[in-house]
Amino acid sequence: MKYILVTGGVISGIGKGIIASSIGTILKSCGLRVTAIKIDPYINIDAGTFSPYEHGEVFVLNDGGEVDLDLGNYERFLDINLYKDNNITTGKIYQHVINKERHGDYLGKTVQVVPHITDAVQEWVMNQAKVPVDDDRKEPQICVIELGGTIGDIEGMPFVEAFRQFQFKARRENFCNIHVSLVPQPNATGEQKTKPTQNSVRALRGLGLSPDLIVCRSAKPIEMAVKEKISMFCHVEPEQVIFIHDVSSTYRVPILLEEQGIIKYFKQRLNLPIDDQPSDLLMKWKKMADRYERLLKVCSIALVGKYTKLSDCYASVFKALEHSALAINHKLDLMYIDSTELERSTEAENSVKYHQAWHKLCKADGILVPGGFGIRGTEGKLQAISWARTKKKPFLGVCLGMQLAVVEFARNCLNWKDANSTEFDPDTKNPVVIDMPEHNPGDMGGTMRLGRRRTVFKTENSVLRKLYGDEMFVEERHRHRYEVNPELTHCFEEKGLKFVGHDTEGNRMEVIELENHPYFVGVQFHPEFSSRPMKPSPPYLGLLLAATGTLNAYLQRGLTATVTSVMTALQRKSFLAQKQAEMIV
């Protein structure tokens, strides 16, 4: 097993996750099996109870793990499926060690940060690195480990010490440290400054880790003189200094790394059995990055949510939309709309914001209402859903978005004016969305309906089923504590809102579709978590197709292709039978 540790300096949010994902992509393109681990020094057990403004979105894995959004980057770039133990937190490590102490595993010894916490970190990494993450179920060969935060943070010290020890346990030829730093360029002078990187590397060395590669992040391409200066003051060769400037898309990052000779370096440094040139996989990434930058047609989507001030709150949703737009050769114009600004109360307080929000919504080609929690902004989301339904605008509701689509339909089409979710009004006379008692025991963390679950299509006449390739069932990831009331579904179906997908028992409603509408779809699951750059999520792809007016043509083409393949198979079977009969004669 080869281990690549990615650390960061100067500031957080510098792009360590994208760098780690890109390195994994490059090594995977060389034919190696790659896994990834993210270490978050916060004391929370997992990311499940975070506000999106604290740490960005909560990413959900197949096994129900609620983890840091960087694991989403790993899965998308590497096309792998990770597990909750691929996300290590201080809380998890201390909980693990304290449980062992309570069981008497330390035989009366004083439990300390060194060696017990540091040993637990190393054991966790070594064990999790062996867990297969590809479909072939083979053990990985490379483990990319991202250490969150910045070097010098007090909460990250035990992890740095753990890897200081680990580099000797793993041996030099199996361990490599990449340090990501910032090269700022103040407007006052216009000069690219190396001092922050020098200080960051000095702090890292003072803690016992020496960087093998220094990846310098900057707004603009860095000059050669700056590279030579960093090389001299940070005690590395010039070829060990890598520059990554801001680019139009993250798809370009693996290409920039490969162009600077990183494959050759890893081959020598870690003694890897690979060629100097990448395989077709990286060439596909290059073509995808080139195509992304040449797109001319634009498709605008209005994302109506309550966490719109920080784009990381909807990172996977944005990526799923971007993947779908790229698949149909369109550039995505994503307009974030704060749902509270669509409400009548905002018109009275700030009419400018109100009218600007509605202007965005009206000019969008499609409307998306993502998941969320809490009552704030729900009336604005209902207004957006009503607009999409009545004006025949393509619409996709995800999780809460689907639940609110049911509420809106009940109020305006079934004339149940007080219809609501029990999350927002426990005493409503028409509870069209209800809580699931078994997933609401009182604790907040990890108690929802989480992870990959099966959705069965109960009819062949479903747009979403066709988008999924006419499969009888699909498996997608969930994260919710409320569901559509199954006792009332017949009332909706009589008026044209069809529940075309449900769970395997048929009790939980998973997919809704509205009749006589270009695309009005709601899903209880979160399909964005399974979207990949070269395999876009079908519900999101359907939204983009409908928004560009190409959905019917796409479905017809898919149906024609299916019929053609079936006819070809029948003709081949008939031909073989005829030949066999001739041979017998």
SSE order and pairing:
Layout: E1 2-8, H1 16-29, E2 34-40, H2 52-55, E3 59-60, E4 66-67, H3 70-78, E5 87-89, H4 90-102, H5 113-129, E6 142-147, H6 157-170, E7 175-182, H7 195-206, E8 213-218, H8 224-233, E9 241-245, H9 253-259, H10 262-269, H11 280-294, E10 298-305, H12 315-327, E11 331-338, H13 344-349, H14 351-363, E12 366-369, H15 378-390, E13 395-398, H16 400-412, E14 420-421, E15 431-435, E16 449-457, H17 463-467, E17 473-480, E18 482-484, H18 489-494, E19 497-502, E20 509-514, E21 520-523, H19 538-547, H20 551-584
Parallel strand pairs: 1-6, 1-7, 2-5, 2-6, 7-8, 8-9, 10-11, 10-12, 12-13, 13-21, 14-15
Antiparallel strand pairs: 3-4, 15-18, 16-17, 16-19, 19-20, 20-21
Describe this structure in words.
The protein is an alpha/beta fold and 585 residues long. It folds into three domains: 2-290, Rossmann fold, CATH 3.40.50.300; 295-549, Class I glutamine amidotransferase (GATase) domain (Rossmann fold); 560-585. 40% of the residues lie in helices and 19% in strands. It has 20 helices and 21 strands. Strands 11-10-12-13-21-20-19-16-17 form a nine-stranded mixed beta sheet, sandwiched between helices. It has a seven-stranded parallel beta sheet with strand order 5-2-6-1-7-8-9, sandwiched between helices. The chain has a three-stranded mixed beta sheet with strand order 14-15-18, with helices on one face. Helix 1 packs parallel to helix 3, helix 1 (16-29) crosses helix 9 (253-259) and helix 4 packs across helix 5. The longest helix has 34 residues, at 551-584. The relative contact order is 0.10. Mean pLDDT is 89; it is low at 560-585.
